[in-house]
Specification:
mainly alpha; 14 helices
């Protein structure tokens, strides 16, 4: 069930890559657009919180409520998660305004690599040869995409500019780094909070940060706040609030709680596949040779990471067997 839901969320993200690109080409301000997305998602998530019933400490639900989340001890953690969220979303929307949708989508498989490295650095996971091989292979794939991945010109009018591409890649790197750090940091918070509560509380400071940025950039420009009065922008923002923000981040938070940050983020490898299908079915274009080669290297690297994760879970299960046997013997006696 977790894997099916996460797969569905990646399909929604692949669609979002094209919608975000269309909104930026329609003249939407990236910062104002991002603020609307985060603020709308925050409101929707907090509305959803009131329909959640938490379980006890031994269950899989929340052991703390919103009052605890606003407490002095936990609130700084959510502020940090909100900052990572802003870096993630701002990075993607600025990248979408400078890079083709397929490039934004195919670059997402770098995220599990960064999540794995952060998990190792922060003591969440152990480093193995499979993980090292996966990192090297995935990084090689990312380099191939950057150097050889020629964008589809008619899908992105500005993609033919080398300067535009060079400006876009730092933002997509900020996107994947912020997202990876977010899920690794979220894992600790999910020990005490329901996934939707944790997501809502992370989005609250993110809405404040993005609102201040939007106010600084847009000021009192009515056209910028109205997203250029574009119907395309309005459709994209509704999709972003309901699907990409509230639904997807709740699904991924739940998946992170039930599995691990690396296991959750490894599903981003499906985005290039879904993106290629959308590009073929809607626009009649397939991946370029550079993007295909790079994507294959990334997928191979992530498969090595999955193998390492499976081995780790198997070792943990074996380590728990003696303890379970001891408890069973004590109960029978």
């Amino acid at each position: 069930m977790v894997y099916a839901a996460t797969t569905f969320s990646m399909l929604l993200y692949a669609i979002w890559a094209f919608m975000a690109k269309a909104a930026m080409e329609a003249g939407a301000s990236p910062i104002v657009f991002t603020f609307y997305r985060i603020a709308g998602g925050t409101v929707l998530l907090f509305c959803s919180v009131f329909f959640i019933r938490g379980d006890g400490p031994n269950g899989h639900g929340a052991t703390k409520g919103l009052a605890d989340a606003f407490g002095r001890e936990d609130f700084p953690k959510f502020c940090f998660l909100g900052l990572l969220m802003v870096l993630n979303i701002f990075g993607f929307i600025f990248a979408a305004s400078r890079l083709p949708a397929m490039t934004c989508s195919i670059f997402q498989p770098v995220m599990p690599v960064i999540a794995m490295l952060l998990s190792v650095m922060w003591g969440v996971e152990e480093l193995t040869r499979h993980r090292v091989g996966g990192v090297l292979c995935s990084m090689l794939g990312a380099m191939v995409i950057v150097l050889l991945g020629a964008p589809h010109q008619n899908l992105d009018k500005n993609a033919g500019s080398m300067a535009s591409g060079l400006q876009g890649f730092p933002f997509i790197i900020m996107n994947v780094r912020g997202s990876a750090a977010y899920f690794v940091s979220l894992k600790g918070v999910l020990r005490f909070y329901h996934p939707t509560v944790a997501t809502a509380m992370s989005y609250l400071p993110a809405a404040v940060f993005s609102g201040l940025a939007a106010l600084t950039v847009a000021g009192f420009d009515e056209d910028m706040w109205a997203l250029g009065h574009s119907k395309t922008c309005y459709i994209a923002i509704v999709y972003a609030i309901f699907c990409t923000t509230a639904l997807n981040y709740s699904i991924l938070a739940w998946a992170t709680k039930e599995t691990s940050p690396t296991t959750t983020t490894v599903f981003t490898t499906l985005q290039p596949l879904f993106g290629a299908c959308i590009a073929y079915l809607v626009f009649g274009h397939s991946l370029s040779a550079g993007q295909t080669i790079g994507g294959c290297f990334i997928v191979i690297g992530l498969l090595l990471n999955v193998k390492a994760q499976i081995d780790n879970e198997s070792d943990e299960s074996k380590a728990l067997l003696p303890e379970k046997a001891r408890l069973l013997a004590g109960a029978l006696s």
